[in-house]
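RECORD TYPE: protein structure
NAME: Glycosyltransferase family 4 protein
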Amino acid sequence: MKLLYIIPEYPPHFGGGISTFYRDIIPEIADQGHQISIVVGSAFMSKLPSYVKDSVKVDFLDTDLVNFYSHKFSCYKTTPELQRHLAAAWAAWEYVKGGDGYDLVEVTDWGMLFAPWITSTNSPPTVVQLHASVGQIDFYDPQIDSRLQGSFVRLLEAGLLASADELQANSQSNAKAWQLLTNRNVHYIPPSLTLKNINIAPENPDLGNGLVVGRIQYWKGVTVLCEALRLLREQAPNIDWIGRDTVYFDSKSLMSRHLEQNYRDIWRSKILPLGTFSSEIIRQYQAHAKFIVVPSIWDVFNYTCVEGMAQGKVVLCSEGAGAVDLIHNGLNGLTFKANDSQSLATCLETVMSWSASKLREVGLIAKETVIKELDPRLIAQKRIRAYEDLITRGKYPMKPNQWLIDAVSPQQKLDRPLAFLDRLPLRDLVGYTINRSLRKVLKKM
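PREDICTED:
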């Protein structure tokens, strides 16, 4: 098969969850005799030099082309992120000539990269890989200044994805979520993990602090962990947190500032934010942690869970993270209820009570689980069979209605894209402009 992937990130330049997902599986599919091309691009990335590695050609989307298409979505000037997402999706579509010459195309839900492929009638069969859509992320971590965009994007996503040729998810929970939203079957195939990318933990680790790897972000469960440690009082373990800071709900301050104000007894005392590190250094921290915590309120998958398991670590995983599919509570890890600080506190008490031999025993079973369930060769074979089945079936017969198609298709550039402001009271506009200017001045002081 001749396969085309249009994705927002890919190694070695990016290290997010989508990048990790494709890092392991694409070379394996290529090794099994399939010709693969990749176009990397999204709304806010810069063009990088093309390269070829492991017989896979990787190109990067031309930002000038994205800027050109951005003008064709000037009607969304009030929602600039959506405007850029749709521009990038159509720029990628033009860049690859609508997939001409390929047997199958795979795109992601993030960035609405699927829009041109679902609305088209003559493109190759297309898989939409459900990693975490723009609308989903906004739903679980809403920002006060983007509610209009969040609601609109979710309506577009649900309507369009209901007509996708095929939907695939790498966790059971996300598959069920999109089945309910689209009334379509979602094909569940777990991700793969290449153990050569993991520094296997030493036989006698330092058994130091617990560890969380993830953004300091609400839906990553940082407040749940703070509450759980507060419940444990003097019995609370020390936990290192590796990851970058993010903006809090009101968009005016950072999440770490919110934690400092509301959890002074926990944040920087029991939870120690370490900042960000390279993948290699993160794996060293994972290798020497006493246990690993995944406190996510919601997560499509969460690779830090399976990376910890692969290193023979006991992982405490929230039922809100898709990787919980791999954990049998008490056998190869521990699980707790999502967004439930008492459940997490009980889980922490359990792991702290285990002896070193018990930690090694459970960690070894965890490692064996990853080796068996996420074997790249077997997962690649499952994906190849799914591709072949889709090519045989052909494109989904039902297309979105014309209203949806028009909403996500390029249009003539508007002469006055901000004309909607004419409908707002001048007093409100002037007052907001003055306050915004004052905030900018105060920031610089």
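COMMENT: Residues 430 and 436 are 10 Å apart (CA to CA).
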